[in-house]
Amino acid sequence: MRPRNFTMVLGVVVLASLLAVSGLAACSAAEGRGSVPAAASARPRGAGDAVATDAGSAGLLPWSPPRLSNPTTIDVATLTPRPGAPRIIRLDPRRDYRIRMPDTALRRPLVILGGRNVVLIGGAISIPYQGPDASIEQRRGLLLIKQTGTVHVEGLLLTGADLSEGIQIASPEAVVQLQNIRVEQLHARDQVRFSDNHPDIVQPWGGVRRLRIGALTGQTNYQGLFLKEALGPIGAVQLWKVNIKGSASGRQLLWREGQFDISVNQVYLEPAKGRSLQQALWGRWTNVLAGPPPNGDFVPRGLAGPNYRSAGYAPGS
C-alpha cells in the first residue's frame, strides 16, 4: 500500500475508477504507520486455532474450490488490454467462472471484477520494470473486487523486477481462499523512505467476508499480511502454513488492526536482520513462530506457477 496518508484516497480512487470504466483497460468476459506494540507468542497452537483440515504431509489443502453452477471459462491469454494497462476481467455477479491463466507468466497486473464463485488454479504473474512514472496499480499482481460468493485462487506465483503489491482484495461479500501461493521480490523502489509505496503480500483493504490462507510463502522488503479494515469490514481470517521472510528493509510482516476473529496455525516469520519477532508484528498475535519452517518453505520454488498441479484437498474440506 501507499504511505498512510494516501491509503484511503487511493482505495476510493481505485474502486471508483474500476466501476466507472476509467483509463484502465477492460477485458469484458461474457458480455505508515505508528508504533503500536504487538503481543506475540511462540507457543504451539491451541485448540481454538484449529483450521478445518486433515491436511498434512501428503500436501492436501484445507479448503476445496466451491462447486460451480454452469461455469463460464475465461481464457486470460485471449484477452487484449490496452497497452500498459492491467488486464481487467469483468464478470456477472450472478454467475460462476473458471479463470484459465496463460501457459507462460502474465506480464501485467490482473484485475478480476465481479463474479459469484470464481476459481483460478495455476499460473504466474511477473511484473517487469514499468517505466519511471508507473503507478502502483501497474506494479500490482492481483486485485479481487466485488465477488459475491467464494473466490478460490490456488497455485499462483507472483514475482517480477517491479512487483510492489501482491494480492489486494475489495470483496466484502466474498469468501476468499488463497492456497499454495508464492510471492517473490515484493519491494518498493525507494527502499529507504518508502516514498513510492508500502508493499504488502496480501491486503484486503476493501473488505472480505472471510479470508482463508492455506500454504503461502512470501518475501517482502516492507510488509507481509496487512489485515486492516480500511474501506470495508473483515469478517474473519484463517491462516494455515504461512511463512514470510523480510528482506534487509522488511518491517511488519503481520499487521492486525480491527475486531475480526483470526486463527493461526503453523505461521512462521523471518524478520529482517536486526529485528525481533516482536518488531515484525503489529497488533495482537498469538502462536506465531520465529524462523523458517522446519522443512523449508511451505510453497517451495517450482510448486506454484503455470505448471502447477494440485495435490488435492483434505476430506470434508
Query: What string gives the helices and strands in order?
Result: HEEEEEEEEEEEEEEEEE
Described by strand count, sense and barrel closure, the largest sheet is:
14 strands, parallel
Q: Output mean pLDDT.
A: 83
Coarse shape: globular
Low-pLDDT ranges: 2-50
Tally of structural domains? 1
Structural class, by secondary structure, is mainly beta
Beta-strand fraction estimate:
35-45%
The total strand number stands at 17
Number of helical stretches of at least 4 residues? 1
Residues in helices, as a percent range: under 10%
Task: Give the N-terminus to C-terminus distance in angstroms.
Answer: 32 Å
Computed CA radius of gyration, to the nearest angstrom = 18 Å
How would you describe this protein?
It is a single chain. The chain has 317 residues and is mainly beta. It has one domain (38-290). The chain contains one helix and 17 strands. Strands 1, 2, 3, 4, 5, 6, 7, 8, 9, 10, 11, 13, 15 and 17 form a 14-stranded parallel sheet that branches.
Note the topology.
Blueprint (H helix, E strand, L loop, with lengths): L6 H13 L7 E2 L43 E4 L11 E5 L5 E4 L9 E5 L3 E9 L13 E6 L4 E10 L5 E22 L15 E2 L4 E13 L4 E4 L7 E11 L7 E4 L3 E10 L10 E2 L5 E3 L27
Parallel strand pairs: 1-3, 2-4, 3-5, 4-6, 5-7, 6-8, 7-9, 8-9, 9-10, 9-11, 11-13, 12-14, 13-15, 14-16, 15-17
